[in-house]
Specification:
With about 170 residues, the chain is mostly helical. It has one domain. Helix content is about 75%, strand content about 0%. The chain has 8 helices and no strands. It starts with a helix and ends with a helix.
């Protein structure tokens, strides 16, 4: 059961790019919630709940998967990607000025997804060093920091986009 939860119900067992698969659920939920008009507060609360759930699963069940696989950061554990991707989207609607069009919602979702994956894969400083933390914390911390970096760049992109399109 621990491995099932840590793999986000099997997404981490998919053969190609399990981290990408683990990042998809928050992006899809974010995009759909925005598309169907959920409030910024509701979207943020759901993203916070996903980030918290993924974080708890990593810290609690990550050590069992490490022990079972012998890997320091097992590929099958994608609850960390779930948490980091959710963190990317958590506050974005509070910085977006006005309502986003359908096109803007899906472009924002796609850009946030791509930015998170890039930061998670490239691991610029200090992301890479965070993997050295013990057990589940090492699995989780780098993805949370990648989510923070992606959120910052996404906010900057949205600000530039809004100022460019209105100016």
């Amino acid at each position: 059961m621990k491995r099932l939860l840590a793999s986000c119900f099997g997404l981490g067992w998919l053969p190609l790019a399990p981290g990408t698969w683990g990042s998809l659920p928050p992006a899809i939920v974010f995009g759909l919630m925005c598309h169907f008009g959920a409030s910024a507060l509701m979207v943020s609360a759901v993203m916070a709940a996903l980030a918290l759930a993924g974080s708890i699963v990593c810290v609690e069940f990550g050590p069992a998967v490490i022990a079972a696989t012998g890997e320091v950061d097992p590929r099958e554990v994608v609850a960390d990607e779930l948490a980091g991707q959710a963190l990317t989207f958590m506050a974005i609607l509070f910085v977006a000025t006005g309502a986003l069009s359908t096109r803007q919602i899906w472009l924002t979702t796609a850009l946030g997804f791509v930015l998170f994956r890039v930061f998670d894969i490239v691991k610029p400083w200090p992301i890479n060093g965070l993997q050295k933390l013990a057990e589940g914390w090492g699995i989780l911390a780098d993805d949370l920091m990648a989510g923070v970096y992606a959120a910052i760049v996404l906010v900057l992109c949205l600000r530039l986009w809004v100022s460019w399109s209105t100016g």
